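Moderator note: this is an archived Q&A kept for reference. The question asked for a predicted structure of one protein chain; the sequence and the answer are reproduced below.
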Amino acid sequence: MILKPTKLINMKKSEIISSCVFLVVLCLSFSNSWANLSSLVDVTPGTENFISCIQPKSNNVTSFSQQLIFTPVNASFIPIWQVAVQNTRFLKPSTPKPSIIVTPVDETLVQKALFCAKKHGYEMRIRSGGHDYEGLSYTADVPFVMLDFTNMRSVDVDVANRTAWVQPGAVLGELYYSISQKTDTLYFPAGVCPTVGVGGYMGGGGYGNLLRKYGTAADNVVDVRFMDVNGNILDRKSMGKDLFWAIRGGGASSFGIVLAWKLRLVPVPEKVTVFVLNKTLEQGATKIFHKYQYVAPTIDRNLHIRTQVFAEYIGNTTKKTIRIMFEGIYQGTRDTLLPLLDQKFPELGVRREICEEIRSIQSTVVFWGLPSSTPIEILTNRSAIAKLNNKSKSDYVRTPIPIRGLRKIWRKLMQNDGSALLMINPFGGRMADYSESAIPYPHRAGVLLQILKTVNFNGQTSDTTPTSLKRIMWLRSLDELLTPYVSKNPREAYSNYNDLDLGVGSSNYEEASLWGERYWKRDNFRKLIRIKAKVDPDNFFRRPQSIPVF
């Protein structure tokens, strides 16, 4: 069944012009600094056939299409490719780049790009915000068309029905800002990084500061506009329950192309309370964190306390310590929060003077590391948000790590050169209410903590310098050290934090299970494979660690 485009999906002429101006500005901004790279990109033979295939016959429309389709011969090709590369370790000449970039403004051009890529033998990569941890949405070792949704970024908030239709090119910051312009008593339970693209984020599950109260982002998807491998545009009803299940947490880009998500907005108070508190080893951080593992996943669902753990030197000495940053957000006032913490977690030592009551939109700014007084418009300014330059891995903790285990981890962190960070989020609450198979995202009841482990490449010219390689080896050794303390059979990992170290084999189930069961667990992974075989039997939508077809 093919659905007719809606008012949301078909952008107005003024929006199209604005999007084109956006691309032109990018080209002017980056063409000089990247001119030396453009000469290193080869023009893949056959791109002329693709261009001829995708362009309409009308001269006027052809002229317009040329502003939306780019090949390596265009001066703007490199700037457009690189602007949404959110992990700068991939910004290097050796990174394989697309044969063609298509930046559609409507569903018609998406359909044509799909048809022409299939006809002329290209693979396709789909980029929403560019936060793919392994760069898989914008790089490949084969000729490919990159579908870049930067021009399809509308957000239509319906306060009365508590929903929002969001196109795939919108980023979380734009979604939050759009909601805040209409109400302070609704929000969406997603992450705190403003430049994460909505299109890919929901496909992996998605979590944030509201996960203990409202579950994952994908749990709050109520409908979708979706293009299958044949170019049919489907919604929740017409695609059937299996495909709708699969794309919410199973990697939507393995099955087709998300054109828009319909999201359920959730109620929040007009003001929430945030606090930030640091503890070092000398201040009892080890015992406090040990208790945190018991308290944070079981305390009132309105409270979420994230931690960041890193090593640092003590003053001007050569001695190191561990600093743990406790970042809390409470869906209520400080007058309710403080008695709760005094009862459940007095060791943390949260005081009234460090608690701040602010709007939900401001809390996103705070959790991104900026003062609450920062204008919220920064969430819509993609160029103002710092990019990553790192390699990451993820784990889930189901049994509290004992004191002796924490001390081993601290010693390992102090052996690092200062490039490492652990970011830890508590689960429990609403997350435990869902079964592992409610959607493909399986990390539910019993999970206490999710750990993101990362090393950056700051100060290095690439991720292949001796220092960078040493940092990667350190991260892998940390991964090994954590083995006794994290989930087992399988050792769970978060698919949105994709990690090619887990494996990329997909010629049979035994190979694919090495990574697939870690992301989705066995039953969900097998179900995803069955659905994939039905909706994309020739495996057109493929990339490393996509759902395979055997």
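Archived answer notes: The first helix runs from residue 13 to 30.
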